[in-house]
């Protein structure tokens, strides 16, 4: 069983999101949009699924350094864990800050900032490539002799702490604002207003930003998102859009030395002969969030299908250590495929109906493979047959309605 604190906390994430929705309703706040919230969670789902493979690299190298190159052997107890947690957040601050200040690394972090909303679901909008650019920031902890198991625990708790600060339902928090990261401080971090960009990088503590000159107090209400919106609900494209933009811009840069500078300078940097650094601009007076319109019944279709995909994802993450590589790969692919297919529904892509039909059949096959030993065969076949028939009927009826409504991209 996967005992990662992040995986174990999955049910609590959704309970807290429900609580936040209720609180925002009492505050007469618009709160959540289904397409945005599902895209946020989809990015988190893909990040967790791909992390099954990527974390082997990061934790594996950390463990090798710990076992063969560490200067000390630090015992595991309550006090050393507190020290590790503080030092971990210090390393996190620099990994996070560099993820904003180095263009290549920004490609791994931009995913988290690309939502134009700010609620607890945004906390789950995680990148699938960020670990590649940041895992080595924690190697000093291995050299000091901190146990890899304790590192994973500290990392999980740090990430759990950051979940609750992604909300507008909580205002200022008085004395805690002086040294802890809070919703107010983190709203600043997610703002794309020029004065807010690249500020408040701390994970649990805000003191590192105050020490190293990157702290900004929340003043006017932030406008959330990134300076070049992705304008898509496709979680794969959300993960790849910045890299695609980098590829296009690199092709315009003739000199190798300038290409290297482009990779490691701040996002927005170009050589002077191509216009130079493009500083963030003030928010446009006519700015509107990206949105698309589908019938409410089709939203309910996606929501119902999505609950089943989340159940499959939870089962997979809890049981991942018991799977061999081939089942891991197939289950990961059907989960990622599902997230892309749902984005096609929201965006009314021409391929979404045949894609959904094939996806449903593949989903049924994967579920049958995973749970055939847990249920009597007749019951399992009956349930999956009913699911398939109901899904095809619901999809067909809603497609007829959906085809009569033009796509609105605001």
Written description of the protein model:
By secondary structure, the chain is an all-alpha fold. It folds into three domains: 5-212, no CATH class; 242-274, no CATH class; 296-402, no CATH class. Helix content is 62%, strand content 0%. It contains 17 helices and no strands. The chain has helices at residues 5-8, 10-26, 34-68, 78-101, 103-113, 120-123, 130-134, 139-144, 148-164, 183-190, 207-212, 235-250, 256-264, 296-319, 325-346, 352-371, 377-402. Helix 3 (34-68) crosses helix 12, helix 3 (34-68) packs parallel to helix 14 (296-319) and helix 16 (352-371) runs antiparallel to helix 17. The longest helix is centred in the N-terminal third of the chain and has 35 residues, at 34-68. The mean pLDDT is 93.
Structure at a glance:
By secondary structure, the protein is mainly alpha-helical. The protein is built from 17 helices and no strands.
Quaternary structure state of the chains depicted: single chain
Helix content: 55-70%
Structural class: mainly alpha
What is the helix/strand order?
HHHHHHHHHHHHHHHHH
Question: Which structural traits does this protein have?
Answer:
single chain, 62% helix, 17 helices, 0% strand, 410 residues, mainly alpha
Write the layout of secondary structure elements.
Blueprint: H1 5-8, H2 10-26, H3 34-68, H4 78-101, H5 103-113, H6 120-123, H7 130-134, H8 139-144, H9 148-164, H10 183-190, H11 207-212, H12 235-250, H13 256-264, H14 296-319, H15 325-346, H16 352-371, H17 377-402
Helix pairs in contact: 3-12, 3-14, 3-15, 4-5, 4-9, 5-12, 14-15, 14-17, 15-16, 16-17
């Amino acid at each position: 069983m996967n005992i990662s604190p992040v995986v174990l906390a999955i049910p609590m994430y959704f309970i807290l999101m429900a609580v936040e929705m209720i609180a925002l309703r009492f505050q007469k706040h618009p709160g959540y949009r289904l397409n945005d919230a599902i895209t946020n969670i989809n990015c988190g789902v893909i990040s967790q699924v791909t992390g099954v493979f990527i974390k082997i690299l990061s934790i594996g190298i950390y463990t090798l350094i710990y076992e063969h190159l560490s200067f000390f052997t630090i015992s595991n107890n309550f006090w050393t864990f507190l020290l590790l947690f503080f030092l971990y957040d210090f390393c996190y601050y620099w990994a996070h800050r560099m993820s904003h200040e180095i263009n290549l690394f920004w490609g791994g972090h931009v995913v988290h900032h690309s939502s134009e909303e700010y609620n607890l679901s945004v906390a789950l909008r995680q990148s699938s490539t960020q670990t590649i650019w940041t895992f080595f920031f924690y190697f000093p902890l291995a050299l000091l002799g901190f146990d890899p198991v304790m590192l994973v625990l500290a990392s999980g708790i740090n990430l759990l702490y950051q979940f609750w600060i992604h909300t507008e339902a909580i205002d200022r928090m008085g004395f805690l604002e002086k040294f802890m990261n809070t919703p107010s401080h983190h709203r600043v971090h997610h703002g794309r207003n020029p004065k807010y960009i690249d500020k408040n990088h701390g994970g649990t503590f805000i003191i590192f930003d105050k020490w190293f000159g990157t702290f900004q107090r929340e003043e006017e209400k932030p406008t959330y998102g990134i300076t070049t919106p992705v304008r898509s609900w496709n979680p794969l494209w959300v993960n790849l859009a910045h890299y695609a933009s980098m590829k296009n811009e690199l092709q315009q840069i003739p000199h190798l030395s300038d290409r290297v500078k482009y990779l490691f300078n701040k996002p927005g940097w170009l050589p002077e002969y191509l216009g130079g650094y493009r500083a963030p601009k003030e928010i446009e007076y006519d700015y509107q969030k990206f949105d698309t319109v589908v019938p409410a019944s089709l939203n309910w279709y996606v929501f119902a299908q999505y609950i089943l995909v989340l159940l499959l994802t939870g089962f997979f993450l809890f049981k991942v250590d018991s799977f061999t590589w081939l089942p891991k790969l197939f289950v990961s692919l059907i989960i990622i495929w599902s997230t892309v297919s749902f984005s096609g529904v929201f965006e009314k892509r021409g391929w979404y109906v045949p894609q959904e039909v094939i996806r449903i059949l593949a989903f049924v096959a994967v579920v049958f493979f995973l749970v055939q030993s847990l249920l009597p065969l007749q019951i399992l076949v009956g349930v999956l047959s009913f699911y398939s028939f109901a899904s095809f009927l619901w999809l067909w009826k809603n497609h007829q309605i959906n085809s009569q409504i033009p796509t609105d991209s605001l």
